[in-house]
Amino acid sequence: MTQPSEANPTEATAKAGGLIVPVTLFEQNCMLLWCETTRKAVVIDPGGDVDKILAAIKQANVSVQEIWLTHGHIDHVGGAADLRDALKVEITGPHIDDKFLTDNVVASGSRFGMEGVRDFVPDRWLAEGDQVSVGELTFDILHCPGHSPGSVVFYNKEMRFAHVGDVLFSGSVGRTDLPGGDHATLIKSITEKLLPLGDDVGFICGHGPGSSIGQERLTNPFLTGEM
């Protein structure tokens, strides 16, 4: 599964579809992901601009079942509480180690000039080995701390696709200078959890273009030792 696109004819028989909705001044990749068979969907990381996300849902003509969170940073969760209220759905994720972040969304927002955000408690915390589903699609949960203590990755083995949040990027890795971040822990998460998934696995990340595990294994300077 390459970066999902409803307009891509090569994806006509795909099991999943999706739209990337860049939100907030951070240009965070909020993702609307759905099962093509059932048209049931999830919103991954609604960082803000809830009206923009709602418009994308209407455009895609899908039924959102849940909100999934990769981690608790403000640019990924700023719109979670309002979107939960608007859609009357539950929030799933991240790992409970990010509770200190979801408990302090308002305080974090004030530091970045983001008004109208709200603290919240997810309806379900996620842990290593858990699974989440939407329609006929099932994703395994990988707990990948380092960028934040509670970062998780959503991985669908059948489609060879992952949403990695801010753990790994095209040509880079997540920053580790925020509270709870640790570079050595992050690299360990990537090398022990993500690289073994296989070079053919494509991924969407929290900012910028997606990539593949193979591409990053070969060229990412944080992984090749060229830093």
Description:
- The two termini are 30 Å apart.
- With 227 residues, this protein is an alpha+beta fold.
- It has helices at 50-60, 74-77, 80-87, 99-102, 105-111, 183-194, 213-219, 221-224, and strands at 16-23, 28-35, 40-44, 63-68, 90-92, 131-134, 137-143, 152-156, 161-163, 168-169, 172-173, 202-204, 211-212.
- It contains 8 helices and 13 strands.
- Strand 3, helix 1 and strand 4 form a beta-alpha-beta unit.
- Helix content is 25%, strand content 26%.
- The strands form 3 sheets. Strands 6-7-8-9-12-13 form a 6-stranded mixed β-sheet. A 5-stranded mixed β-sheet has the order 1-2-3-4-5, covered by helices on one side. A two-stranded antiparallel ribbon has the order 10-11.
- The model is unreliable at 1-13 (pLDDT under 50).
- The protein has one domain (9-224): 4-Layer Sandwich (Metallo-beta-lactamase, Chain A), CATH 3.60.15.10.
- Mean pLDDT across every amino acid position: 93
Count of distinct strands: 13
User: Rg, please?
Assistant: 16 Å
Main sheet specs? 6 strands, mixed
Count of domain modules: 1
Q: Specify the number of helices.
A: 8
Q: What is the overall shape?
A: globular
Portion in strands:
25-35%
Produce a short descriptive summary.
The chain is an alpha+beta fold and 227 residues long. The protein has eight helices and 13 strands. It has a single domain (9-224), classed as Ribonuclease Z/Hydroxyacylglutathione hydrolase-like (Metallo-beta-lactamase, Chain A, 4-Layer Sandwich), CATH 3.60.15.10.
How would you describe this structure in keywords?
227 residues; alpha+beta; Metallo-beta-lactamase, Chain A; 6-stranded mixed sheet; 5-stranded mixed sheet; 25% helix; disordered N terminus
